[in-house]
């Protein structure tokens, strides 16, 4: 009641209490909103923009006593050294290889799973299956790595026992470079496929039931209805997620890789970001490693923009 | 009519296959979880030999006993609780007011702030400049190095902004303002009480993230007494195991002759996984609704 009364009052005296005309007045009236946004503003300024300024050390020889601004410029030397290093193509291949492998396996599975969940009648089994498949999302990356190592350990791991139980020779998952990418990708699917269905299920819940009813009357099978009604419904969501994934092809989640890396699988597990960590923070080659990191960021940004551009030309579902 | 019956039969087969498929997916996810619980209370010999593959065998609570006796784990637990509580409080204090301000159409400069925040999604200075910054700010080896560099996530700000935009009626704000209510009072007394779902979602998202994170602690903390649980876990689960791996291939005979120390270590591993993960997994089914809601609000914009 009180609010209605006030709203009516407000309409009557729009000039004094409504929206002020001039920009200055609007800013002054909402001065508190600037207070609200200040912490976030300073956070992004200091912890995101300041490092962008600091990335200039990629073109310098960083001398700690002289600081970032005071260190001498050397141009593209660090980039040159990186591009001509013997490990350059290995790093590129591992980074791209893991990302593309992950995309090829990890992208379709949540979609298929969401379509399958959607066909199951709401009830105990559906709730159980959803709760359980979502749960691994909450397992930390350290625990995940610990699980992988325990399950795949030669002679004691349960996966090894299961494979040997089938009479097959079990490979050395943890140390054989050929298995690293598979181990990485499939453990990721185990952990996140269930959680990944949520966004698709949200889209599927918006399907007009009338479409399905009409299709049933026309004699469409369940499969046909999924194929011609549900799948097209998911296309916009799929496109947006695909763009985002493509944009991070060079930004492979390195926290897990770092934990699973060992000297024996290095040739297949070393990616740009783990290399940056090792050369920068472990070996303290700040400038060189900042250069490699910058190269990585630039490629990421270019990929994201390029993929978005391609999608924008061919469909309506681009990010911007 | 006959064609109609044939089609329902085909549908029945399809539906049956679908149930089998979902059941298999369920089993694949469920089995490792059950296995870990069983392994944590089983005789390590049975676990290592593969005799224990589903239900516990030779039940022992030795693993948990060792975990509870281990002071590093307790210190880590304490640190993690501290970092998670302080970190999540900071996350919310930065995220919610900013998201509310940006949800207001009459906020001059909202597009500027949005653009400024969004740029950070596409481009970042990278690991080394951030590390040098934290060092320069004198945060090294303090709790603040773990908490402050991840004080806000642009994604969560967007999700909260979308919530405020769609669930707080504009009329409410206008009416309150005409009654002489300041923005501060409006936010604290009217908007926040109406926004419990998004506060819960954000607290849970940030909270789980803080509980599970290890990398910033790894690079910024040197003092083992300040390590969060995840770093202690890394020592127990990853480093120890990897050292054994790096020492060369273990053939079956040496594995069979494994001393009891290694067996206890293996047992402790499963127990510690359970102890570290239970707080998150246990609260999750009760709060699943909120987590799911978060993804949904995010997808409206997405």
Automatic annotation (TrEMBL), chain A:
The chain crosses the membrane at residues 33-52, 91-117, 138-163, 183-203, 234-254, 286-307. GO terms for cellular component: plasma membrane. Keywords: Cell membrane, Membrane, Transmembrane, Transmembrane helix, Transport. SUPFAM superfamilies: MetI-like. InterPro entries: MetI-like, MetI-like_sf, UgpAE/MalFG_permease. Its main location: membrane. The keyword Glycoprotein does not apply. It holds the Pfam family BPD_transp_1. One of its GO terms (biological process) is transmembrane transport. It is a multi-pass membrane protein. Belongs to the binding-protein-dependent transport system permease family. This is Sugar ABC transporter permease. It comes from Cohnella zeiphila. The lineage of its organism: Bacteria, Bacillati, Bacillota, Bacilli, Bacillales.
TrEMBL record, chain B:
It comes from the Bacteria. It holds the Pfam family BPD_transp_1. The chain crosses the membrane at residues 12-34, 81-100, 112-132, 144-164, 186-208, 267-287. Coiled coil: none annotated. It is a multi-pass membrane protein. Signal peptide: none annotated. GO terms for biological process: transmembrane transport. Residues 77-285 form the ABC transmembrane type-1 domain. It is found in: Cell membrane. GO terms for cellular component: plasma membrane. Keywords: Cell membrane, Membrane, Transmembrane, Transmembrane helix, Transport. SUPFAM superfamilies: MetI-like. Its main location: membrane. Belongs to the binding-protein-dependent transport system permease family. This is Carbohydrate ABC transporter permease. It comes from Cohnella zeiphila.
């Amino acid at each position: 009641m009180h609010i209605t009364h006030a709203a009516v009052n407000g309409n009557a005296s729009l000039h004094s209490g409504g929206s002020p005309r001039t920009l200055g007045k609007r800013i002054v009236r909402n001065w508190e909103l600037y207070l609200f946004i200040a912490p976030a503003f300073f956070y992004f300024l200091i912890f995101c923009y300041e490092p962008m300024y600091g990335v200039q050390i990629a073109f310098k020889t960083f001398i700690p006593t002289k600081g970032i601004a005071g260190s001498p410029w050397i141009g593209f030397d660090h980039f040159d050294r990186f591009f001509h290093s013997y490990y350059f193509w290995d790093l590129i291949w591992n980074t791209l290889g893991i990302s593309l492998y992950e995309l090829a396996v990890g992208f379709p599975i949540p979609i298929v799973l969401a379509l399958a969940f959607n066909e199951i009648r709401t009830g105990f089994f559906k709730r159980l299956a959803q709760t359980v498949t979502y749960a691994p999302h909450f397992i930390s990356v350290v625990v995940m790595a610990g699980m992988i190592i325990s399950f795949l350990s030669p002679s004691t791991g349960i996966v090894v026992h299961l494979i040997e139980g089938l009479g097959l020779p079990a490979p050395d998952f943890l140390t054989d470079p050929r298995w690293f990418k598979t181990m990485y990708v499939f453990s990721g699917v185990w952990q996140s496929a269930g959680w990944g269905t949520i966004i698709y299920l949200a889209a599927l819940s918006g399907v007009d039931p009338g479409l399905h009813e009409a299709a049933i009357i026309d004699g469409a099978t369940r499969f046909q209805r999924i194929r011609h009604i549900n799948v097209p419904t998911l296309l916009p969501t799929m496109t947006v997620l695909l763009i985002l994934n493509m944009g991070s092809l060079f930004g492979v989640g390195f926290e897990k890789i770092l934990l699973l890396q060992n000297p024996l699988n290095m040739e297949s597990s070393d990616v740009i970001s783990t290399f940056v960590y090792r050369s920068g923070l472990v070996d303290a080659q700040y400038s060189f490693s900042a250069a490699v990191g910058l190269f990585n960021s630039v490629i990421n940004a270019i990929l994201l923009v390029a993929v978005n551009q391609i999608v924008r030309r061919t469909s309506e579902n681009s990010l911007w | 009519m006959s064609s109609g019956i044939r089609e329902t039969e085909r549908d029945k087969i399809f539906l049956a296959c679908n149930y089998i498929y979902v059941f298999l997916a369920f089993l694949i996810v469920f089995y490792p979880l059950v296995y870990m619980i069983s392994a944590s209370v089983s005789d390590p010999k049975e676990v290592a030999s593969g005799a224990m593959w589903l239900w516990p065998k030779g039940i022992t609570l030795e693993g948990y006993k060792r975990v509870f006796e281990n002071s590093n784990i307790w210190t880590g637990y304490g640190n993690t609780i501290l970092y998670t509580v302080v970190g999540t409080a900071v996350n919310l204090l930065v995220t919610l007011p900013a998201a509310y301000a940006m949800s207001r159409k009459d906020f001059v400069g909202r597009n500027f702030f949005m653009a400024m925040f969004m740029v950070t999604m596409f481009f970042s200075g990278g690991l080394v400049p951030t590390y040098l910054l934290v060092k320069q700010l004198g945060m090294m080896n303090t709790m603040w190095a773990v908490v402050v560099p991840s004080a806000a996530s642009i994604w969560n700000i967007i999700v909260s902004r979308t919530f405020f935009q769609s669930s707080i009626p504009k009329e409410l704000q206008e009416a309150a303002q005409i009654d002489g209510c300041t923005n501060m009072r409006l936010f604290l007394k009217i908007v926040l009480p109406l926004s419990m779902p998004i506060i819960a979602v954000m607290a849970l998202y940030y909270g789980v993230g803080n509980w599970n994170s290890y990398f910033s602690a790894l690079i910024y903390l040197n003092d083992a007494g300040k390590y969060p649980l995840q770093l202690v876990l890394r020592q127990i689960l990853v480093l120890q195991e990897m050292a054994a791996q790096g020492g060369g291939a273990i053939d079956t005979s040496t594995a069979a002759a494994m001393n009891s120390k290694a067996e206890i270590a293996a047992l402790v591993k499963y127990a510690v996984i359970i102890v570290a993960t239970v707080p998150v997994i246990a609260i999750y089914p009760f709060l699943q609704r909120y987590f799911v809601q978060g993804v949904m609000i995010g997808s409206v914009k997405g």
